[in-house]
Amino acid sequence: MASSSLWQPLTLGGLELPHRLALAPMTRNRANPDGTPGELAAEYYRQRASLGLLITEGTQPSEDGQGYVNTPGIYTPEHVDGWRRVGDAVHAGGGHLFVQLMHVGRISHPDNTPHHRQAVAPSAIAPGEEIFTPTGKQPIPAPRELSVSEIQQVIGEFRHAAASAIAAGADGVEIHAANGYLLHQFLSPNANHRTDSYGGSVEHRARFVIEVARAVADEIGADRTGIRVSPAFPLGGLDEGDTEAVRAQYRYLVGELAPLKLVYLHVHHLGDDELLRSFRDVWPTAVLVVRYGRERDGVAADIDAGLADIAPLGRFALANPDVVERLQQDAPFNEVDPATLYTGGATGYTDYPVLAHV
C-alpha cells in the first residue's frame, strides 16, 4: 500500500479530486493528420479516468505550434469536436481533463507541419538536434525570429486555444512553459538573444510567459489555468546557465505568476529542492511535482516532504490504466513497451492489461 498521503482528497479550483495522483502529459503521436484527436484517444483517456486529474498530451494552439507528426491541435472546430469526445469519456469515468497547450517553437521541421513553413522562436538559433519526420530523422533547421507584433499574435493563439478547450468541455488547460519548447526558449539565454523587451534581462525573458499566462487566465479563469515549468532542463538544446542563474530566473518568474492565482504550478523537477521549496513558499495554490526516474516507493515522497500537493504519473500510468488500483492493492505493474510509444494504433496505447485480465 502506497503512502496514505496519496489518498487524501483535494480541492483544485472548482474540482474535487479523490486523491493526490494525476496523469502527467505524454506525447503519443496518434492524432489524425489534421490534428483532431484520433478515434482511440477517447478510450485511452477514459481508461485512466480513475487518476482524477488527467493532463493531456501536448496540444498545439496553432499550425506554427506543431513540431511532431500526428500531434493534436485545439484551434479548429474539428479539433474541438474531437476533444469533446475525449472529455465526455473522461467525465463519464469520473475524471477531469486539462488540455496541455504546447507551442514547440523551434523544435519543429517543415515536413511535420500542415503549412510546411519555417519554425518560429525568440531568436533565429537552431537547437543543434535532430527530429523525427515522415522520411526519418533530420536536423532541426534554424527558426525565424518572431517580431514583437507576432509575439502578440501567438499570445492570442494561446487565448483562442484555451477558449476552444473549454468549448470542448475540458475542465481547464495547462500552459506548457517547459521541456525545451517555445515559452521555455524565451526563458533560456542561449535560445533568446533578443535585445528588446522580450530578451536580455531575467525580467524581459520572463515577460512572454507571464503575458501568455495572464491572457489565458483572463480568457477562461485562473481557476482553470495551470502552468508547467522545468528549471534547468537541458531539452531542445537549452542551457539556462549555472544554478544561481536558474534560481534567479525562476524565482522571478514564479513570483510574478503567483499573484495571478493560477490553479496549479506543475514542476518537472531535476532535483534542486531549495528552488522547489522557494516555489512552494510563494505559490498560493496547488503544486504538482514530477521527477524522471521516480520509482514506485517514491511516488508520494514530495507530498510527504511538503513540497507538492499532487504527484503526476508518467510511465506508470501509460502502461497501467488501473495504476490507482494497483497502487492501492500493492499489485505489480505492467512494464512500458518503448517500441510502441509513438507508433500509432491501439498497440501500446489502449491494450495494456488491467488487473482483472492479468
TrEMBL record:
Stored Pfam families: Oxidored_FMN
Q: Where is the NADH:flavin oxidoreductase/NADH oxidase N-terminal domain?
A: 6-332
Write the signal peptide boundaries.
none
Per its record, how is this protein called by name? Alkene reductase
The protein's organism comes out as Isoptericola peretonis
